[in-house]
Amino acid sequence: xxxxxxxxxxxxxxxxxxxxxxxxxxxxxxxxxxxxxxxxxxxxxxxxxxxxxxxxxxxxxxxxxxxxxxxxxxxxxxxxxxxxxxxxxxxxxxxxxxxxxxxxxxxxxxxxxxxxxxxxxxxxxxxxxxxxxxxxxxxxxxxxxxxxxxxxxxxxxxxxxxxxxxxxxxxxxxxxxxxxxxxxxxxxxxxxxxxxxxxxxxxxxxxxxxxxxxxxxxxxxxxxxxxxxxxxxxxxxxxxxxxxxxxxxxxxxxxxxxxxxxxxxxxxxxxxxxxxxxxxxxxxxxxxxxxxxxxxxx
Length: 298
Known about the structure:
The protein has 298 residues and is an all-alpha fold. The protein has a single domain (3-296), classed as Na+/H+ antiporter like fold, CATH 1.20.1530.20. The chain has helices spanning 3-23, 28-53, 58-80, 82-85, 92-96, 105-144, 149-157, 160-173, 180-203, 214-239, 243-254, 260-267, 272-296. Helix 1 crosses helix 9 (180-203). The longest helix has 40 residues, at 105-144. The chain is globular, with a radius of gyration of 18 Å. The chain starts with a helix and ends with a helix.
């Protein structure tokens, strides 16, 4: 399958989301409700279905997971350098640093499915399941400097994506199988989550808000789209990863940042417009950088 075939359909859906927001009058309440449906119902269903159904070689998948987490931790450490390298206003660094390592889950699973079907989706879901707590804790630590940790752990325990991934892995490890009629139903729900999730990515694009700390913004974007995937690729090759597992690791590292970074920043008193710009710029940049990194794994 060519790189264009893998990437174009998903970015076309993102563009459709942009056009729908611009040329319809459905209102913010419509998109907010759709976001809740995808996040709390459709997307967790896809994660459970993928991880419970596809056979996982936990020995080789464990090596892949270690590489992905090592690359993540390296990038988190590099993001903290921005505080010393650049001068910024209050809550600018603290709000923006999370965009250097967080990832868009909708694009992650959409690309994984096109890359290798259920097997690739389950591998991506496994990485996501371990990465989400690390990313959230690093982001919250920067925003509150260690305060409110108990609330964070409660939030993680209720996170539907983590619950669905953990349940699917346990279901898989126990050797259980879904009845055919249940599997077909879950597959239909999962397919809907990918399409709607990509529309939501496009609907959330906002290229405004960069009024300060432009050098810092450029640093975070370079980390996310150049340094992070390069670290993943080098570590993966050093660890002996090949084929689909190497592709999944590198694509995971090269993903655009999470739209939820904006929500976290605004809820915790951060610089929302700065983060909104970084999220949107990261999504647009990924249309150019993802093909390069995917090609680098072949």
